[in-house]
Design brief:
This protein has five helices and three strands. The protein is globular, with a radius of gyration of 14 Å. The C terminus is likely disordered.
C-alpha cells in the first residue's frame, strides 16, 4: 500500500487502487499488499480481496521477501489465487521468526493454509 502511494500516487489499497495500478503500470496483473488488511489481486479487469492471515508478529523483517517468494511459487504453478495465498502464508510464518531469513518449509506453509500434504495443487 505505501509503495503504491509513494511511487505511483495510488492511495488506499482497494479494488479501485488495483485498477489504477493496472492502468499506470500497463500490467494485466497487479498484487497490492496492505498488511493486516490483506491483499488485493487485480487480474483481467477484476479485483479480488484476500483477508489477512492472523499472525503474532515477532519480527517483520523479511516478510515482504517471503510474500514474494510464495507469490512466485504460485505463479510458476499457473494459479494466481493460490500464489497470493502462498505469499500470505509465507509472510505470516516469517513474521513469527527472528531475523530476515525464512526458515520454514512447505509443510509449515501447508499447515498455515489448512491443507494436508498432497492436497496442494502443484
Amino acid at each position: 500500500g505505501e509503495d503504491a502511494a509513494d511511487l505511483f500516487g495510488v492511495h488506499s489499497p482497494s479494488a479501485e487502487a488495483v485498477g489504477q495500478l493496472t492502468k499506470v503500470l500497463s500490467a494485466p496483473t497487479v498484487v497490492l499488499t496492505d498488511g493486516a488488511n490483506g491483499v488485493w489481486l487485480g487480474h483481467e479487469g477484476r479485483a479480488e480481496h484476500f483477508a489477512a492471515i492472523p499472525t503474532n508478529t515477532i519480527d517483520r523483517i523479511g516478510a515482504g521477501d517471503a510474500f514474494c517468494a510464495g507469490l512466485i511459487a504460485g505463479i510458476l504453478e499457473n494459479d494466481l489465487r493460490h500464489a497470493v495465498r502462498l505469499g500470505q502464508a509465507m509472510a505470516s510464518l516469517k513474521h513469527t521468526m527472528h531475523g530476515d531469513h525464512f526458515l520454514g518449509n512447505m509443510a509449515d506453509v501447508e499447515r498455515i493454509l489448512g491443507v494436508k500434504g498432497r492436497d496442494v495443487r502443484r
